[in-house]
Design brief:
With 430 residues, the chain is an alpha/beta fold. The chain is built from 13 helices and 20 strands. 30% of the residues lie in helices and 23% in strands. α9 packs parallel to α10. It is globular. Bound molecules: pyridoxal-5'-phosphate.
């Protein structure tokens, strides 16, 4: 398939809309993010490479923060750090006044290393260990979310007097998203259903040690419809009146041309309207977005290693499911482009380097005249890609580069073969 220059330009425009705000084509047709030429970033830092547009991250944080505080002043936006557990990202968000959701000791360690105020940290987890709870209370974590009765037992033993807690309610709301990232339906492993939640509430209320601030609810991730969020707020109200409600995250990001998630403001409208209808007017609200705060600020760069022409044509790159598990785990669709020939071209199978046929980054994506050595960019990879990077086939986890105003700085270095072997104790060859 080949298009004329006007059609290519139209396709390029549509594609650039998936990249961070401010992404544009240079006079010679090269794609720029944060003012940096992507081809030059690939040259300087190597590939695969996670590129983050710093201004876009900041803008997104401000947008969530302002949207919530304008509609519900007694509130806080908490970044679900699992979406991009990188100290530089957390530090930037802390500077914008966000709090942090950490799921376990590792994410807490990252948050503390980033210098965030522990009082703004919310500790989650359906299987928190005693060590993790001890670490959290010793660090002065502001809020612990109780997911089960064993959390109450452990906190009664470990927590200092006056430890603030929320109880995670399982509201029996099933959003329309991939099953693996749906968490609000009956039968989910997360939270406590009505009877158990009421028992935990009664128990914590009589605790001399724990202070029950309120309830938490989170129904899942990559949710494109707003209606289930309103239902979850109504459901949580049935458990009584509390001072604090953490309404979770889950609002979806736009990965493809077809997807139309709600705007940030629309999502906050739905939550706060439901809160006005069902929750006490003086309650403190928290929301916990992860994906939507970071997804579109990130771009992954790969270098094409080989093009196998035929039916179909395979364009293989030097990364894959080692740096992006979203495709294999949830069937997430992405788009992609060659960075200096944006728009147009014939559909190809963009595949990774790993030893599985399922290692297919994008199926049927149009790339214009792909050649070995080309740099390919995949937009909307800021969420959960860095998170789930792994060493499959000995892949070295990619670095993270922040770009702003034409300058690029490395905030996470590339893994090395020495890193790969660093934990190996046997055989005694090292
Ligand atoms: C408790 C909790 N809060 C918030 C989030 C963030 O969800 P998302 O990244 O979809 O906004 C998650 C992730 O699923 C979660 O488990």
């Amino acid at each position: 398939m080949s298009y004329g220059p006007a059609a290519n330009a139209a396709i390029a425009k549509q594609l650039i809309e998936l990249f961070p705000d401010g992404a544009e084509l240079d006079a010679d047709g090269q794609l720029l993010v944060g003012g940096c030429r992507l081809s030059e970033l690939a040259e300087s830092f190597g590939t695969p490479l996670y590129v983050v547009d710093e201004r876009s991250l900041r803008d997104r944080a401000q947008r969530f923060r302002d949207a919530l505080s304008e509609r519900w002043p007694n509130s806080r936006v908490v970044f679900a750090s699992k979406a991009f557990p990188c100290a530089a990202v957390l530090r930037l968000f802390a500077g914008e006044g966000l709090g942090f959701d950490v799921a376990g000791g590792g994410e807490l360690a990252i948050a503390l290393a980033a210098g965030v105020d522990p009082a703004t940290v919310v500790l989650h987890g359906n299987a928190k260990t005693e060590d993790e709870l001890r670490m959290a209370v010793e660090a002065g974590v502001g809020t612990v979310v109780i997911d089960n009765h064993d959390d109450v037992d452990r906190l009664e033993r470990l927590a200092p007097d006056g430890q603030h807690v929320l109880i995670r309610y399982l509201p029996d709301v099933r959003p329309d998203t991939h099953e693996a990232i749906s968490t609000g339906q009956a039968g989910s492993k997360f939270g406590l259903a009505r009877g158990d939640a009421l028992a935990a509430i009664a128990r914590v209320r009589t605790s001399g040690r724990l202070v029950l601030d309120g309830l938490h609810v989170h129904i899942g991730s990559q949710i494109l419809d707003t209606e289930p969020f309103a239902r979850a707020v109504a459901a949580v109200a049935e458990l009584g009146k509390f001072d604090v409600y953490d309404l979770g995250g889950g609002v979806g990001a736009r990965y493809t041309y077809a997807e139309r998630p709600p705007t940030v403001e629309r999502w906050i409208d739905v939550l706060t309207e439901a809160a006005r209808a069902h929750l006490p007017a003086d309650a403190r609200l928290m929301v916990e977005p992860g994906r939507r705060l970071v997804a579109r600020s990130g771009v992954t760069l790969y270098r094409v290693t080989t093009v196998k022409r035929g039916e179909p044509t395979f364009v293989a790159v030097d990364g894959g499911m080692g740096d992006n598990l979203d495709v294999a785990l949830y069937g997430q669709r992405f788009e992609a482009t060659v960075v200096d020939r944006v728009g147009g071209g014939a559909p190809v199978e963009l595949v990774g380097r790993h030893c599985e046929s399922g290692d297919r980054l994008v199926s049927g994506v149009a790339l214009r005249d792909p050649q070995p050595g080309d740099v390919v960019a995949m937009p909307v990879t800021g969420a959960y890609c860095y998170t789930m990077a792994n060493n499959y086939n000995g892949a070295l986890r990619p670095p993270v580069v922040f770009c702003a105003g034409g300058d690029a700085r490395l905030v996470v270095r590339r893994e090395t073969h020495a890193d790969l072997l660093a934990r190996t104790l046997e055989p005694q060859l090292l």
